[in-house]
From TrEMBL:
Superkingdom, taxonomy of origin: Eukaryota
Entry-linked InterPro entries: ACT-like_dom_sf (IPR045865), ACT_dom (IPR002912), GcvR (IPR016867), UPF0237/GcvR_regulator (IPR050990)
PROSITE patterns: ACT
Domain ACT: 34-110
Gene3D superfamilies: 3.30.70.260
GO BP annotations, alphabetical order: regulation of DNA-templated transcription
Organism annotation: Fibrocapsa japonica
Pfam families: ACT_6 (PF13740)
Protein name: ACT domain-containing protein
Length: 206
């Protein structure tokens, strides 16, 4: 009985070792791909894209989707295992089966922050609300760029103001920097920008 137990243990250990090596090779040989697509909105677009990825043994690592007016836009970062998705063309053909969508597929760029890289030194969130006029987004993002920030998320919306019949512009986002930041100076800079744009503008450290 002891002999059989030892043999069984050896077999289990060898099986686990082989499985572990196989999983390591799978991750090592995998690649990250970026899919961006847009087209007329309709039910089932996300289901169609996820099926196209699954059919090529791809795995979705990150995804974002939004409806903009009458159009639907989607972006995905997928993990493509070389044993299943041997060529980008295979995935392109699978994605092309989704009707009425303009699709772009490319290899992912190196990620200096987040899941593929190191954590940023500094993170911030910001919000803006005020009367809509040209140049608002450029002014805020240029200010952050000059301070060494990279935009991670950005959402904007224009809607009718409750009173006065003017258009109200709303913006919120997140940004990160790989250098330390003085948030008192950032808030002072945002206060100057707030007065220049005649909007309510807030910045917070995450």
């Amino acid at each position: 009985m002891l002999s059989l137990g030892a043999a069984s243990l050896r077999r289990s250990t060898n099986a686990l070792r082989s499985l572990s090596q196989g999983q390591f090779l799978s991750v090592r040989n995998s690649s990250h791909l970026i899919i961006t697509a847009s087209g007329p909105d309709r039910p089932g677009i996300v289901a169609d894209f996820t099926k196209a990825v699954l059919d090529q043994n791809g795995s979705i690592a990150e995804s974002k989707a939004v409806r903009m007016g009458g159009d639907f836009c989607i972006m995905m970062r997928i993990l493509a295992n070389q044993s299943g998705v041997t060529q980008m063309e295979d995935l392109k053909r699978s994605l092309s089966s989704v009707p009425n969508m303009a699709v772009d597929l490319r290899e992912a760029s190196p990620d200096k922050f987040g899941s593929l890289g190191t954590e940023p030194v500094c993170k911030t969130s910001f919000t803006l609300e005020g009367a809509d006029h040209p140049g608002i987004v450029n002014a805020v993002t240029s200010f952050l760029c000059d301070k060494g920030f990279s935009i991670e998320e950005l959402h904007t919306e224009a809607k009718s103001a409750p009173f006065g019949g003017t258009m109200l512009f709303l913006m919120n986002g997140k940004a990160s920097s790989n250098v330390s930041q003085n948030f008192d100076e950032l808030r002072e800079g945002f206060k100057v920008l707030e007065n220049q744009l005649n909007v309510d503008l807030l910045i917070s450290q995450i």
